[in-house]
Specification:
alpha+beta; 244 residues; 10 helices
Amino acid sequence: MTSLNKMLNVLNIFGPDSLVINVDDIAKKLSLSRATAYRYVRELCDAGLLTRFDKNYTLGPKIIELDWMMRQYNPIISQGHEIMAQLSKSTELTVYMSMFCDGHIINTHIESDNKEYTLAFGRGRALPIFKGAQSKVLVANQKAFRLKKIYDEHIAQNEDYDMTWDQFNTETKRIRRNGFCVTHNELNNLSLTGIAAPIFNLENNEIIGSVAFLGTASEFEPTSLVVLVEHLKQATSTIERCAN
C-alpha cells in the first residue's frame, strides 16, 4: 500500500459513529506512529479534506465541493435525476439511485415528496451489504470473483446473515436472471418495500448503479408489481443510453 493510500485511509475512519476523530484514533486504527498520523492530518487539512477543531478533526469543506461536482457531472446522476423525479411524481413513491463504491452501497440521489416517514438510509448513508433491494441488485450483478470476495468479507462470518455460500450464490443468480429485486422490511422497522433494477455501462456491461422504488404496502397498492418493474427497466435503460 502506498503512502497516499495510507493517508487517504484516514477518511475511512469516519462514519455515523465516528464523526470526529483525533490523532490518537488515527494512529491506533491505522497502526501508525503519532508523527506519521500528524503528518497525514496536516496534509489532509491543507487539501481541505479535513478541518481541525481544537485537538480533533472533522471532514473538511473540500468534501462538499466534490459532492457538488459529483452531482453536477457524474453522468448517471446528472442524466437520471429528472427521470427519477418523473417516476416519483407518477407513482407517488420514493425513488433512490445507489452505487457500489469501495465495498460500500451508497444512496447518491433521492426523489420523494413523502414526509410521513424518515428515511433510515438517506443520501450518503451506507447501506448494509446485501440487505435492501438496491443493495442486493448492486451486489448480485458484480463479477464472479467479486461476489466470492463480498461473501467472504461481509457475509460469511457476520451473524446478521444466516446464509451459506451456495444460498448466496443461488439468490444472486436469481436476481440477475430476473433483472430486478424485490425486498420487504429489510432495512428498518417501517414495513417498507423496495424494488430495484440495475444500471449498466453499455461498453463493458459492468453494473454502475441501481434505481429503486421505496414505499409502504399501501403506497404500492395502486400500481401492480409488473408495471412498476417495467417503469424501472425503462428508466434504467434511458439512463444507460444517456450516460454512455
